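Methods: holo model generation. Sequences were used as deposited, without trimming of termini or removal of tags, and paired with ligand SMILES retrieved from the corresponding compound records. Each pair was processed once, and we did not select among multiple samples. The sequence and calcium ion SMILES for this entry were:
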Amino acid sequence: MMGPYGLGLPGIRFSTGMPSRKGTLSAPASATVTMSALEKAMIAIIEAFHQYSGKEGDKHKLKKSELKELINNELPHFLGEIKDQETVDKVMETLDADGDAECDFQEFVAFIAMVTSACHEFFEHE
Ligand SMILES: [Ca+2]
Ligand SMILES: [Ca+2]
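and the model returned the structure below.
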């Protein structure tokens, strides 16, 4: 059965950076469908991105200060706190695939994949 999120993939269009209202997420967490843990995790990733990307400037991209806040608040156990500007610069440099000095959703997902993969390796060697 295809639910409302079956093909909607809300994250896809965010990478265009177009200031369009169509890109706004319609709070999928409030939906009545029962989602799997993995689906909930995916939505959590999307929501975490938008919670921080919407603070300043381009609503669909994380600038350095937003990225730093996201990592420090949402990934404290996996990545550790970013304290200095140099580290923020390096992280952004690593993530920013298209070179616009901001992290869009696709770049963010690649980052999450990287962290998840590193985390997986860590637990595998336990
Ligand atoms: Ca932003
Ligand atoms: Ca970018």
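The longest strand covers residues 61-62.
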